[in-house]
Structure formats: C-alpha cells, structure tokens
Amino acid sequence: MSHTRNRALAFALALAAAGCSGKPAEKPVFKVRGRVTYETKPMAKALVSFYAADQKDRDTPAHATADEDGRYVLHTYRADDGAPQGEYLVTIYWPAPRPKAAPKGEYVDPVDADQLNTIDRLKNKYSSVGVTKLRARVEPRDNEIDFNLP
C-alpha cells in the first residue's frame, strides 16, 4: 500500500512542479522586422516594444533595438524569434545621444549623467502603453512593419 501511495505522491509532485514554473507557456512566434524613422531619418538605437492589445495577455512583450539604419528585428523568447500573432500597442523610446566624456580631472556626477542618458527625443509621445497611438498587427507569416514618425 505504501508503494502505491509513494507513486501517487511522486506523480502529484511532478504535476505540481510542471504547473508551477511561473512562466507563461510559449506561443508560436512569427518573424517581425521593420524600420523606424523620424522625419525620414533612421532612428538609431530606438527601443521598440510590442505589447499585446489585450491587457490580460501582456505577460511577454516583444522587444528590439534599432540598428544605425533604424532597422529592428523583434524577439520574444529568443534572439530575433519574432512575436505571437495578434494586435499590439507599440512603444518607441529614442534616447538622446550620450554626452561626450568630461575632460580629464573634471568630476561628473554619475546620477546626473544617467539622467541625461534617459531623455527621449520623441518627448515621451510613444514611450508607454498608456500614451502611444502606435498599433500593429502580427500575422502568421513573416512580417515587415515600419514606423515613419512625423
């Protein structure tokens, strides 16, 4: 009898461990790439994020950093894997260039330097889900989604 009880306990523990990983199940993803521009110029180093339009499904957003030509490739679970099919709110944060290093011997407060690095060239118009007006739809195929901001 105790042998059967041990098997049942082991089975129950295995089920509990499988269901309590804390990670949402991975959904199928589709390639998403594109280009971000501002007044027709590439937005180098812009941070692009796709958040599910359905608030209940925002556990795993997709992100990318644009290259020097403004091109990005989204990743959700692994590098350049894409995003699940669906409707998205899109945020874009475009950091201002870092200030040049201070001349030798001059003290720069690291806290102030960090604050300078966080200035958004787009004045936070698209930097959060609560304010962005940008939308995108990921289809079950390779997707090319460009954002040409005025």
Structure description:
By secondary structure, the chain is of the alpha+beta class. The protein has a single domain, classed as Immunoglobulin-like. 17% of the residues lie in helices and 29% in strands. It has two helices and eleven strands, in the order αββββββββαβββ. The protein has helices at 2-19, 110-117; strands spanning 29-30, 32-38, 41-42, 47-52, 62-65, 71-73, 83-84, 86-93, 135-138, 143-144, 147-149. Strands 2, 3, 6, 10 and 11 form a five-stranded mixed beta sheet that branches. A four-stranded antiparallel beta sheet has the order 5-4-8-9, with no helix packed on it. A hairpin with a 2-residue loop joins strand 2 (32-38) and strand 3. The model is unreliable at 8-19 and 107-116 (pLDDT under 50).
Structure, briefly:
With 150 residues, the protein is α+β, with helices and mostly antiparallel strands. The protein has helices spanning 2-19, 110-117, and strands at residues 29-30, 32-38, 41-42, 47-52, 62-65, 71-73, 83-84, 86-93, 135-138, 143-144, 147-149.
